[in-house]
Amino acid sequence: MSELLTKSGSHRIRKISDFVFQIEKNESKGMNVPVTIYANDNLISKMITDRTIDQAANVATLPGVVKHVVVLPDGHEGYGFPVGGVAATDFRDGVVSPGGVGYDINCGVRLIRTDLREPELRPKLKGLVNELFKSVPTGVGSEGAFKLTRSELDELLVEGTNWAIEHGYGREQDIEVCEEEGKMEGADPTRVSDIARKRGAIQLGSLGSGNHFLEVQRVDRIYDKKAAESMGLHNEGQVTIMIHCGSRGFGHQVCSDYLRISELALKRYGFKLADRELACVPNDSPEGEDYCKAMSCALNFAWCNRQMITHWTRKAFERIFGMNEHTLNMQLVYDVSHNIAKVERHRIDGEGMRDLVIHRKGATRSFLEEQQLPAKYNGIGQPVIIPGSMGTASWVLLGNKKSSDLSFGSTAHGAGRTMSRSAAKRAHSVDEVRSSLEKKGIYIKSLTKNGLVEEAPDAYKDVDAVVDVSHSLGIATKVARLVPLGVIKG
Question: Annotated catalytic, 471?
Answer without folding.
Answer: no
